[in-house]
Design brief:
Blueprint: H1 7-20, H2 23-30, E1 37-40, E2 44-47, H3 49-72, H4 77-101, H5 112-122, H6 142-164, H7 167-171
Antiparallel strand pairs: 1-2
Helix pairs in contact: 1-3, 1-6, 2-3, 3-4, 4-6, 5-6
């Protein structure tokens, strides 16, 4: 059986790989459902929003994978639009906004990326994987958070490229009759 590689198939594979990388963190966050509140280092506590975020992330990832399998591969325009909505309304705020919010006020916008790379390298935190955003890890270093932010930003860029690659196939391709 020979696989015919098209821009839509390449895009769907990239999307699937990126979506699957969210599952471990979402499962760790959802696993905190028994804890109603999380203890803060300053002798306080706060409501456990990690559980809600974990279940929402699992839902969004599931919806994305289902849409990829059912409509995206068949080049249906509604599927492309749903993936655009997922990218802009879920992954942009969770992956890109933390990078932009970390930017200093007066400096140029893209100088934050070398800062993130430098911080992650100096802290020796390249080993920080997806667990860096988990509430189970109580002592997350600044470098580890920087590595997680950088990973999220790169993942967002890959999903954005994967969404742009098949635009011609979805909107300027032959009309289905």
């Amino acid at each position: 059986m020979k696989v015919r590689w098209s821009s839509t198939l390449v895009s769907a594979v990239l999307w699937s790989l990126c979506l699957v990388t969210y599952i471990p963190v979402a499962l760790m966050n959802a696993a905190t459902w028994k804890e109603r509140s999380l203890k803060l280092p300053c002798n306080g506590s706060m409501f456990n929003f990690y559980t809600l975020l974990g279940f929402a992330s699992l839902g969004i990832v599931s919806i994305g994978l289902i849409v990829l399998r059912t409509g995206y591969i068949k080049r249906e325009r509604w599927a492309w639009l749903i993936m655009l909505i997922i990218l802009l309304c879920f992954f942009f705020p969770s992956d890109v906004l933390p990078v932009f919010l970390r930017m200093p006020g007066e400096s140029s916008g893209w100088s934050v990326l070398p800062d993130l790379l430098r911080t992650a390298r100096q802290e020796g935190s390249w080993r920080c994987g997806l667990w860096a955003l988990s509430p189970a890890s109580e002592a997350v270093s600044i470098g580890c958070a920087a590595a997680a932010m950088l990973l999220g930003f790169i993942r967002f860029l890959v999903m954005l490229v994967a969404l742009v690659i098949p635009v011609k196939a979805f909107f300027w391709g032959r009309a289905k009759g």
